Amino acid sequence: LTAAISAVLSLAFDDAFAGKSYDEIDSAPEEKARGITINTSHVEYETKDRHYAHVDCPGHADYVKNIITGAAQIDGAILVVSREDGPIPQTKEHILLAKQVGVPSIVVFLNKEDRVDDSELLELVEIEVRDILTDYEYPGDDIPIVRGSALLRLEEVEHLRKTNRNSSDDPSPGSAMAKILKLMDQVDSYIPTPDRDVHLPFLMSVEDVFSITGRGTVATGRVERGTVQLGDSIELLSASSHETGTSGSIETVVTDLETFKKALTKREAGDNVGILLRSIGKGDVQRGAVLSAPGTIRSHKSMEAQVYILTKEEGGRHTPIFPGYRPQFYVRTTDVTGTVQSISPPEDRLKTRNKGRSDSQRDNLTSTDSDTASSDIESIAIPGDRVQMVVELIRPVAVEVGLRFAIR
Predict the structure, then answer these.
(1) What molecular function terms (GO) are annotated for this protein (predicted)?
(2) What is the pTM of this model?
C-alpha cells in the first residue's frame, strides 16, 4: 500500500515527490526473500492539503519490536486489512499497540477487493473491523473505511507511464487509483493536524544510526518536541545494548541536518530528520538513545509507574504478575529488560478483601495474619488491574514523569 500511495500521489502532483516501488521500501535481503516488511521505512509524499512523512511498519508478528518503534513516532495510522482474509490475530495486535503508544486516530483500508466477489462477505469484514476498533476504545462506528486494491493501483500507474498519459488526467471513479486518492482524502480530513510542542526544549529519540565516510555519524529519528538548528549544542544520552554496558551523556554539536535527502538549517517537533553529530563515533549512539537540549532530561535505572494489565480478552495476559517478573519495557524507540520489584494493589481489591470478612474475622486477625494477607495481595497484579509498580531496569534509560511505555 505504501508503494501504491506514493506512486499515485507522485502522478497526481506532477512528480513533486518521486514514488517509491515495493522493492525500494522493503529493501533488506530478508524482506525481499520473504515478501514481508521487517524494518520500518520512511516515505515522503504530499496531498493537496498536507505534506506527509509516512512510516511503513512491519505487519508480521515476529517483528513486534520494530512495529512499536514505528508506531511510537506517528500522529495517525492507516490500518490495512485484507478483504480476502478479514481481521487476523495481528490486526488486533496492531490496534492494541497503536492504543498503547498513543496513536490518536486510525483510517482503515480494506485491501484486495479484486479477490472477493461476495458483497455480503465484504460487509461482514467491515463490521468485524469496526467492532474490533470499538473494543480497543477507538470510535469504530465513525472511522472511515476505504475499499480498494493496492496491486491493481500499481498496475494502473505502470500502464499510465507506459502509454505516456498526462499525470493530470482524472482517474475514473471506480478505478484503483481513484480509491487510493479517496483514502488519502479521508486521511487528510479525519486525522487532525497535531499540536506541536515547538516551544519546549528539544528532544529526539534515535531510530537509526548511519556512518558517512569522511563526514561522521548521523542519527535519525522524529523530533518529539522543540526545535533543532545547525550549530546547536545538544546532549546525547546513549543507550547501551548490553546488560553489563554503561549509559552516559555526551555533549555534541549539530553540524548538518537532512530530511529525505534535502539539506536544511532547522527542524521542529513532528519532523523526521537526520542529524550529523560532531565527534561522535557510530559506537557511541544506538537506536533508543536520546538527543536533547543539554540538562533537560536524565537517564534512570529505577522508576515507579502506573501500569494497566491487559486482560486475555484485550489481547493481554492469562496469568497474574508477581514481583521478580522480567518483561521487556518499550520506551520511545528502545526496548530494555526490567525487573518488577514491587506491586501496589488497586484500592478496589483491598476493599473487596476486607468486605468479604465479618467484623469478628477482622478483629481476630493477628498481626502476622494481617501482614501475610496484605503481602499476598500486594505481590500480585491480576489481568484487568491498574497498579503501581516499582521497576529496576538493567541499564539507564532516558525517562521522565508522564512518559508512556509498553510492556511485553
Answers:
(1) GTP binding; GTPase activity; translation elongation factor activity
(2) 0.68
